[in-house]
Amino acid sequence: MTTTPAEALATPARLPRQVPYIIGNEACERFSFYGMRNILVQFLISSVILAYVPVGDREGAAKDIFHSFVIGVYFFPLLGGWLSDRFFGKYNTVLWFSLIYCAGHACLALFEDNKNGFYTGLFLIALGSGGIKPLVVSFVGDQFTRENKSMAKVVFDAFYWAINFGSFFASLLMPLFLRSYGPAVAFGIPGVLMFIATLIFWLGRKQYVRVPPVAHDPDSFMHVAKTALTSTNGAGRPGLYVAAFGGALAIFMLMAWAIGPAWWPEDFGFVITACLALGVLIASGGIGTSMQLERARGKHPDATVDSVRAVLRILIVFALTTPFWSLFDQKASTWVIQGRAMEIPHDVWWWPSFLVKDAGQMQALNPALIMLIIPFNNLFLYPALRRMGLEPTALRRMGTGIVFAGIAWIGAGILQLWIDGGSQVSLAWQIAPYLLLTFGEVLVSATALEFAYSQATQAMKGVIMAFWYLTSTFGSLWVLLTNAGVRTDAVTAHIANTGLSENAFLMFFFAAFAFVAAAGFAWYARGYPMQDNYRTP
To answer: Does residue 8 fall inside a structural domain?
Structure first.
């Protein structure tokens, strides 16, 4: 029977059958990642790895190591995205980096009492996890066309739900395994799950849509930017001077770290310095290119020049979300340390004492709430807002999410004031900040997966996703810079004059940081031109 055009239009879009392999892979991979990440600070504080650090400074040292690790995890997407887009394609790059990832987990399990071996494991996990991070999400998007893109949002939400399904069980169980069976078992189980994740991904190899890499593209983002910066068109080159100044400043900062002059901040190690230098390069290069981008027309297709302009706009959106990540990632460091000073309410009837025995397990609230909030938003909240005439666009959701993160940290700051006042504060009170922060995360992070893919052209999807994950690198950079700042005498004296403890002051500081970022995000989002860059059939 012949299908008429009307019948074809009425045919409902179908879920690509290869998508479950990718989602299954992600659920296991996220268990492995969050399983080790969410016990890292607790392990370091009491381990021989930090035996060289005075006892009173171990919490701060553990936070610095944790956020340095997070910086690596979200920096290496740049490498993975570049290798995928230019040489190997997403499937091959994900598979190979997954094997590196497995090796990193093995190092953590085998070298629990060896500093060099343990740090090697953290580096390999950062490399492997970061290398695949931008690719799995965009690989999901590659399985869709404009004909069935209506299902993409559902799948992106399901993808994010699977992430948190794995994260929930990892966050709930791994602190118990660490407590009962030691670090070898607690770090070994995530390694087994990462191997299973790699196997699941490999099993779907014959069904995937594989978009080939775009090698030697004369109209790539970098080629267009180079043309724009070096063209004169009979005028000066102010954009080139801005980019060159940024490059020189970045080199100067790295040299200052290497030489170590007296005026260079003592706490600005390689990680902080390299991230600052990278930020300067991205900002100056982006501003300079934007200033002269029209000069690339005629030498590159207009559509390509327009797509570069779109990417530069996306990077501004990304930059404005970095304060959110400075708040969010501290739930596995600052909030865990706060929880260790609180009382576990075993005496109340509703507390699951048979299961929740450690403050670190509160992190399981985050993925558990996400699995509830995502369907609640899609089935109830967003339809209700639309009936009220308020369209919950991607940018509106992201800006609102940053606000909720700030409110969550006000709640955490109030709890810290109670603790500092000598009160016996129940750990159950942390549920409120976790709820607010998680609602903000759904609005920011789950939405950004869809936003970043839809805004990037096909040749730049892997790299733009890498830039999205780089926002977490700079989020942790703000944390490291703040931690370094409070170690100076001037800042310490200022905090003392406020009458607040250092922990309470920083919690309110980060809340204010989020509100300022949300205001800037709202201002910029008002004029942002949305794009539609899904693949054509």
So the answer is: no
Cα dihedral angle (287, 293, 295, 299), rounded to 10 degrees?
A: 130
Question: Which CATH number is 186's domain given?
Answer: 1.20.1250.20
The structure tokens 């970043």 sit at: 452
The one-character DSSP state at 381 is: I
Beta bridge partners of 300: 297
Show the CA angle centred on residue 197, arms to residues 95 and 81, nearest 5°.
40
Task: Convert 39-104 into a string of H (helix), E (strand) and C (coil).
Answer: CHHHHHHHCHHHCCCCHHHHHHHHHHHHHHHHHHHHHCHHHHHHHHHHHHHHHHHHHHHHHHHHHH
Statement to judge: residues 190 and 242 lie in one domain: no
Residue-range definition of the domain harbouring residue 432: 323-536
Q: What is the mean pLDDT of residues 134-144?
A: 78
For residue 300, the SS3 value is strand
Let me know whether 41 and 137 are in one domain.
Answer: yes
* Sign of the dihedral defined by the CA atoms of residues 265, 271, 276, 277, in that order: positive
Residues in the chain: 537
For residues 519 and 438, is the Cβ–Cβ distance under 8 A? Answer: no
Pair (174, 267) in one structural domain: no
How far is the CA of 141 from the CAs of 10, 21, 81, 136, 466, in angstroms? 23, 14, 15, 9, 15
Dmax of the chain from CA atoms? 82
pLDDT over 60 at 89, yes or no: yes
* Residue 136 structure tokens: 């799995």
Ramachandran region of residue 171, left (φ > 0), alpha (ψ -120 to 50) or beta? alpha
Q: Where are the alpha helices (DSSP H) in 421-501?
A: 431-441, 447-455, 461-485, 489-498
Task: With H, G, I as helix, E, B as strand and everything else as coil, classify residue 476.
Answer: helix
Q: Got the DSSP string for 178-217?
A: HHHH-HHHHHHHHHHHHHHHHHHHHHTTTT---PPP-TT-
- Residue 92 CA, chain-centre distance (Å), reads 23
Number of domains in the chain: 3
Nearest to 225 by CA among 283, 170, 163, 285: 285
Mean pLDDT of 321-344: 94
In this structure, are 288 and 411 located in the same domain?
Answer: no
Q: What is the pLDDT of residue 10?
A: 47
Among 40-49, 120-129, 299-308, 410-419, the range scoring the smallest mean pLDDT is 299-308
Q: What is the pTM of this model?
A: 0.84
Cα→Cα distances 132→90, 96, 362, 406, 466, Å: 8, 9, 27, 30, 10
